[in-house]
Design brief:
63% helix; 352 residues; 12 helices; 7 strands; mainly alpha
């Protein structure tokens, strides 16, 4: 039975193996260059004692491949569900071969268990190997204090992609049993997997752990659309990315001693200049780019507001990356097991 299951999916297995080998070659060649750039930078900046502020050139190496890995990390589990999970049982129903299998000495329970076990473990191995290679290649980039909680980074790092692959496969198998046709099962798998990933990312992942809270001096805050992040330069203000390294910032809000956010009227009353200068939006968030004539008034404004306001940052520390990875993998593995149970129950109910 195991040999039959492997033979039925030998084409998909060959394609998956070819993808892994091709990607391994590409990552091995480019990864060596990426590591050499990172090592050269570390040697130079260590000699100059300037590793904290110097820009690591590794972030600009193989940018296209960086984006490609992010894309692959997103679509690879979905492809597992489409081409391994959905046809697993739906194809048997379409061709009628399930009747031949069930008339033999093999029970339906064993028939389903072997199919789900053999192909499912192969799907998880594919997801795990793909993630391991991507993690190895991206390790010099991860060392440059990047936010690994961002959606693109989180989704192809760690162990969570193994859970994604298992869930996509189980969802495809369940859709095949319920719909009994391969193409509709593939459509349902893609829609269900996309919905599940969005739901977990938006509503489940933020609740894996209670966020931490930290009080910071006001100039780091963003209030009323204004953010003083190192502008103008003589304010010497530390950005949030350095205050909360690798953290997942939920919110950053200026509050008074009672914990209430100041109103716009209060801000303009204390600092009239805030009602006269329009903020600008940058990739790092809103910030002021003050003309030279407004530097002194802005300095005075910050001094006034600092006496009554402070910043409260709500975030997940970077140290929680791995607990979040294991938690998310657990969620998707549990969902995969539940789907396998549903698949078995439905087969027993329909053909008992």
């Amino acid at each position: 039975m195991i040999r039959l299951a492997l033979r039925q999916f030998r084409t998909e297995a060959i394609v998956a193996f070819a993808v892994l080998v091709t990607l391994a070659v590409v990552l091995a060649v480019t990864g060596a260059h990426l590591a050499s750039v990172s090592d050269a930078f570390k040697s130079t900046c260590n000699a100059a004692h300037d590793c904290t502020t110097a820009l690591n050139p590794v972030v600009g190496v193989d940018v296209t491949l960086q984006h490609a890995l992010e894309f692959i990390g997103i679509i690879a589990p979905a492809l597992v569900g489409l081409f391994l999970g959905a046809p697993l049982i739906a194809r048997e129903f379409e061709t009628g071969t399930f009747r031949l299998a069930w008339t033999q000495t093999i029970t339906r329970k064993r028939w389903l268990a072997v199919k789900l076990g053999v192909v499912g473990l192969a799907a998880m191995a594919f997801g795990g190997l793909l993630t391991w290679m991507a993690n190895w290649w991206a390790s010099p980039l991860d060392a440059v204090n990047q936010n690994r909680f961002s959606v693109a980074q989180f989704d192809y790092h760690g162990v969570a992609p193994i859970g994604y692959a298992a869930f996509a496969f189980a969802l495809g198998a369940t859709a095949g049993v319920l719909l009994r046709r391969t193409v509709p099962a593939m459509v349902a798998t893609l829609a269900g997997f996309t919905a599940a990933r969005i739901a977990v990312t938006e509503w489940v992942r933020p609740n894996f752990a209670s966020p931490a809270h930290e009080s910071l001096p006001l100039p780091v805050a963003t209030f009323g659309g204004w953010g003083f992040i190192g502008e103008p330069p003589n304010l010497a203000i530390q950005p949030l990315s350095e205050t909360v390294p690798n953290g997942w910032v939920y919110s950053s809000e200026a509050v008074n001693k009672a914990g209430h956010a100041p109103t716009s009227r209060y801000l303009v009353h204390v600092c009239p200049i805030l009602g006269q200068t329009a903020p600008q939006t940058t990739p790092s968030g809103p910030k002021t780019t003050a003309p030279a004539s407004q530097v002194a008034p802005l300095n005075a404004c910050v001094d006034k507001l600092s006496a009554t306001l402070h910043t409260v940052v709500t975030y997940q520390p970077g140290s929680r990356f791995w607990p979040f990875q294991w938690a998310e993998m657990g969620v998707f593995l549990a969902a995969a097991l539940a789907l396998c149970g549903l698949t078995y129950w439905w087969l027993q109910r329909q053909y008992s």
